[in-house]
Amino acid sequence: MKYAWIQEHGDSYPVARLCRLLGVSRSGYLQWRVRPPSARSLANADLDAQVAAVHAESSRTYGRPRIQRALQACGVRAGHERIRRSLQRQGLRCVYRRAYRVTTDSDHAHPVAPNTLERRFDGWRPDEAWVADITYVPTAEGWLYLACVLDLATRRIVGWSMSERLKAQLACDALRMAYWRRKPPPGLIAHSDRGSQYASREYRRALSDFRMRQSMSRRANCWDNAPMESFFKTLKVERVDRVRYATRAQARLDIVDWIEGFYNQRRLHSSIGYRTPTEFERKLMAA
């Protein structure tokens, strides 16, 4: 790395001076220039190109574990430490999570359902248990509210809806989309927080029409709906927080593209063995 740096800056400064600065011999540098690349350096260069490609394809959201899994899926074997060094050599980092605004309003007089789910987030078959929640997206025109429904078995987003108003209709529209796309059998557990949108008469009527069982988190307990909270954090960090939306229409198109084009189809999910939601669903349905 030192020799490469000297070669890069050799036209601007005397080589002997750069060698003294970095504590290497001038003769060693001259030998390095005529020496053919080693097998190790060629292998590292090849790995660097593959790591950079996966990192770029994920829009700089993948860290070391997901990059390793993505490379393994392509038949490339590389350990965690090699990938860490490759990321370090190239100065590549994944984006980090930020805090987000809470939209739950549980101060209402609507009926509250018991917590039937009880944090059983794993071990389900597709369309046996869904979780739902609402978040906000900032735009230059004002807030855009997003409601989503996630299948616990596959971590796939099966329904979504967006509106500039935080009303019960928003949650109902996301639930209706999920139902008509999936046509689940009776008895599905539909879990959410105890916000006014999910406790409303309209939402409870929709659950009854679809023959679903309602479940609600305990008051002020985000861990009861952890998979949905995790999805929204991922959405915010990997997409929303990195874009400035001029209009709500722009935000709608971009979020739909991210959910349906990237998250459901291509993003590796750690809780399902670093598979994509659609890939894992096919595996479960074939079992």
Give a description of the structure.
By secondary structure, the protein is an alpha/beta fold. It is elongated and about 80 Å long. It contains 12 helices and 5 strands. It has a 5-stranded mixed sheet with strand order 3-2-1-4-5, with helices on both faces.
What is the structure about, briefly put?
The chain is α/β, with parallel strands linked by helices and 287 residues long. It is built from twelve helices and five strands. It has a five-stranded mixed beta sheet, sandwiched between helices.
Key structural traits:
287 residues, alpha/beta, 46% helix, 13% strand
Can you lay out the helices and strands and say which pair or pack?
Layout: H1 2-9, H2 15-22, H3 26-34, H4 39-57, H5 64-73, H6 80-90, E1 129-139, E2 142-151, E3 156-163, H7 168-182, E4 189-192, H8 196-199, H9 201-209, E5 213-216, H10 226-238, H11 248-263, H12 277-286
Parallel strand pairs: 1-4, 4-5
Antiparallel strand pairs: 1-2, 2-3
- Which strand-content bin applies to the residues? 5-15%
Number of helices: 12
Mean pLDDT: 85
SSE arrangement, N to C: HHHHHHEEEHEHHEHHH
Strand order of the largest sheet: 3-2-1-4-5
Q: What's the story with the biggest beta sheet? A: 5 strands, mixed
| Sequence stretches where pLDDT stays below 50 over 5 or more residues | none
Shape: elongated
Question: Considering DSSP H and I runs of 4 or more, what fraction of the residues is helical?
Answer: 40-55%
